[in-house]
Write a structure and sequence with these properties.
With 315 residues, the chain is mostly helical. The chain folds into 2 domains: 98 residues, DNA polymerase, domain 1; 180 residues, Intergrase catalytic core (hpI Integrase, Chain A), CATH 1.10.443. 56% of the residues lie in helices and 4% in strands. It contains 13 helices and 3 strands. The chain has a 3-stranded antiparallel beta sheet with strand order 1-2-3. The radius of gyration is 24 Å and the shape is elongated. It starts with 12 loop residues before the first helix and ends with a helix.
């Protein structure tokens, strides 16, 4: 999809002002800077598209305009360019619908022309998982005794042992870890807190890191008690984790595309294959909906089919 080079300020006030008001409402509602920025980019693209179609007022937007925008997002455009992924198109259309709903609620539109314009259906994509042997091979590749090695082993052991998101691990503070009850207190999406168990191996790796690794990383640090610290004593970042992960993947020979979230997916899949109840897995993962967790049932079924085909003499 090609759009002109207009900035928001060069667009008609009838489009610019409602979008600016909507973006301010997102800021006021506490949305993250990243979400606000992405929303502004998506809506600027929509406004430029409308302007090129001769639409200069929010009240003049029709359902046909919204549908044409959806079609344009799917258009590969000139040779050498690519159409947007369905997930990206879905996000952009969702933001357009939110803008138009906001305008309706604030009396700028009698009804939203975006209602009924659906996002493209997403194909079911099963999450990548490692086998238990692959997980063990990956974790055992982190076998150094330097502070960063001890930290990394504890971090990845914890993600796999407890099914934590990478950000949840990075947000952990010392007060969130209980060695007595073998649990950690995780702050998940939507600021929801959950307590999850930690296995003996991960707990041992964590204890060793705290005693032998973190004490050295924390020297002179002003960090407010985060468990996982960088080499400079600051809170570890997700980009730091990705860099360290790439290093160990090369050593362990893990499949390409393996990420910290792959360990979380593997945690859930291995629990399900071991007989765990889907609702228990939902609680452990911190999913608000069981539908989100049900994808692991499909992963497990795919694993069973693959095992059957390889193992049964007449498969």
């Amino acid at each position: 999809m090609q759009t002109g080079g207009q900035t928001m300020s060069s667009l008609p006030a009838g489009l610019e002002q409602p979008i600016t008001a909507f973006i301010r409402s997102l800021i006021g509602a506490g949305y993250s800077p990243r979400t606000v920025k992405a929303s502004a980019v998506d809506l600027r693209q929509f406004a430029i598209f409308l302007h090129e179609r001769g639409v200069e007022e929010i009240v003049d937007i029709s359902r046909a305009d919204v549908m044409a925008f959806a079609a344009a997002l799917s258009d590969p455009g000139p040779v050498g360019t690519r159409s947007y992924a369905r997930s990206t198109i879905g996000r952009k259309l969702s933001m357009v619908r939110s803008l138009l709903r906001f305008c309706e609620e604030n009396g700028l539109l009698q009804s939203s022309p975006g209602e009924g314009v659906s996002s493209p259906k997403m194909p079911r994509r099963l999450p990548q998982v490692l086998t238990p042997d692959q997980v063990a091979q990956f974790l055992e590749a982190i076998n150094g005794s330097k502070p960063l090695d001890l930290r990394d082993r504890a971090l990845f052991e914890l993600i796999y042992s407890s099914g934590l998101r990478c950000q949840e691990v990075l947000d952990l503070k010392l007060r969130d870890v209980s060695f007595d009850s073998c649990e950690v207190r995780a702050l998940g999406k939507g600021r929801k807190v959950r307590v999850v168990p930690v296995g003996a191996i991960a707990l041992g790796a964590l204890e060793r890191y705290l005693k032998e690794g973190r004490v050295r990383l924390a020297k002179g640090s002003t960090d407010e008690g985060h468990v996982f610290l960088s080499r400079t004593g600051r809170r570890l970042s997700s980009s730091d984790v990705q860099r360290r992960l790439a290093r160990y993947l090369a050593v362990a020979g893990a499949p390409s595309g393996t990420s910290p979230h792959t360990l979380r997916h593997s945690f859930a899949t291995h629990l399900l294959e071991g007989g765990a109840d889907l609702r228990a897995i939902q609680e452990l993962l911190g999913h608000s909906s069981l539908r989100t967790t049900q994808v692991y049932a499909h992963v497990s079924a795919a694993h069973l089919r693959k095992t059957y085909r390889h193992a049964h003499p007449r498969a």
